[in-house]
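Record type: ASSEMBLY
Status: queued
Input:
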Amino acid sequence: MKPDPQAGAGYPVSGRNQVKRRHDRGFYDHATVHALLDAAMLCHVSYVIDGQPFCTPTFFWREGSRLYWHGSSASRMLRNLAQGEPACLTVTHLDSLVLARSGFNHSADYRSVMAFGKAKLVEDPQEKERALVMMVDRLYPQRTAGLRSASAQEIKATSVIAMDIEQASAKIRARGVVDDDEDYDLPIYAERIPVAMVLGEPEPCPRLKSGVQRPATLAGYAPNRPLQDALKEAYVKSYLKP
Amino acid sequence: MKPDPQAGAGYPVSGRNQVKRRHDRGFYDHATVHALLDAAMLCHVSYVIDGQPFCTPTFFWREGSRLYWHGSSASRMLRNLAQGEPACLTVTHLDSLVLARSGFNHSADYRSVMAFGKAKLVEDPQEKERALVMMVDRLYPQRTAGLRSASAQEIKATSVIAMDIEQASAKIRARGVVDDDEDYDLPIYAERIPVAMVLGEPEPCPRLKSGVQRPATLAGYAPNRPLQDALKEAYVKSYLKP
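Status: finished
Output:
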């Protein structure tokens, strides 16, 4: 077996990204952080304008230690970030609700990542062109090749933002019900309720041309499948081809 | 019929909360904003420390135009916000993935809210005590009454943050596939894939005392039900009692 050059590699830890509350739940290694990012399509990006924080939901994807997201060239966030502004991109997977025997021990199982860096507008035409393809193909492998090509106006109207991850941390709770030792003797009901973002039945566009079939490349987006499983699989097909 | 004092009421609009990109998707009325907040338990809160934005996932709930969230007294976020710092609390519901006939028209259906205000530590003992009850009962109506009571140490270790909403906006896309007129003639597959956060089968704590049954008040948390439906129902039971 060849050694994995990434094995054990991680993001540097400082006050900015150290998990302080429940530090036993904190992880900084690339493998953990990247796996949680690649299982998501939705993130929340924080940035600051004149001292006011904004928290914007958006789509994103990862290439190595670089994160990309996009938006209209006109958006408030992108105008601000184009200069290379500090940002924090956060991804959260909610896995369960935890009902314990005391209010204090009520909790949830979750997996989250906070990534810090400086967000910049992608201005290099080649990097932007490639990003506009991967924005779609990262979710739906090989899809762009079969689409109507992007017009010059569309490319102009879309901005792509890139942020090299300077620091990141993952925080994971996966313990279900945990009560104080003496509370287990109480006649109080406690449970864990799993939750998951699940795919529904695909709804073909009512205006499809006759004979147009769903491509086999979309098979991963199957009804009742957890979205994160489809995303992880698509990520591997997009970036980790043999 | 009595007039509804809230009818037509809304949050004031300025540059801070105006939906600029796709302004046709923006809403500012209390009814729309509050309904999206009450259908969620997870939010992302943005705040600034020394010019660095942080984006933290956490639980929250609403009372009127006041939002509450909580954390350990030791957490970085709470230490900062206790002084009344500007914050932005965002909630996002992802409803579908939209695969169109061009890359540019790939999209998603979603409903999100951004709420702005100044976050402050709740220091009034009565408000804090009530908040610690509602933190649980807002999700699981009447649950606190049957739990082991909170200890003085637990109350001390839990901080509650409150933020009166100064401004807010909702942004909603619910259109499925929308392509450019001329693209409908292309032989390209397009679809909408619904997604939803769904509840799984409850897992009772393996250490339940014999004879302890699941309370009827948890019936709303039923397998395969969308989490947002259980949350909306619980909210009504908690705050809109007849």
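Annotation: The radius of gyration of chain B is 21 Å.
Annotation: Confidence is low (pLDDT under 50) at residues 1-6 of chain B.
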